[in-house]
Amino acid sequence: MADHLEASVTLPSDPASVSAARTYAVGTLAEWGLPSDTDAAETVRLIVSELATNAVQHTLGQSPTFTVDLVLERDEQLRIGVTDSHPRFPRRLPAAVQQDNGRGMVIIRWLTAECGGSLTVRPTREGGKTVWIELPWTFEDRPVTTAGRRES
User: In the structure, what pLDDT confidence band is assigned to residue 93 with cuts at 50, 70 and 90?
Assistant: First the structure.
């Protein structure tokens, strides 16, 4: 495998784009050697879904598009970035029992930590931000069965 692989897609800030972002990310990672029917692929799918949803819902119409970047370094580290043009950084909201949203960053932080990764948010030169997730690319993963259990 190459020392450095990159892929990127820019999508409209529309709820339908969240599904497209998930499909793009999992498809790209499958091309890079991570089968789409594994726990690791499911984790990436959920992270991309939450980040894309945040880019669509919380930019208040001020970001007409968002970009999903995937970077694989030396078959060791996967970086997932979602960039939008809204300047406000994500905030951790109190998780009220009745609250319908606001838990996305909590889910992302938990999944990232569970995988031994890290999360950073960086401003862009254009005034927006990128949420970067870094995960180890050391997947010894088995396919997930239809019952949701890993095969032995």
Answer: low
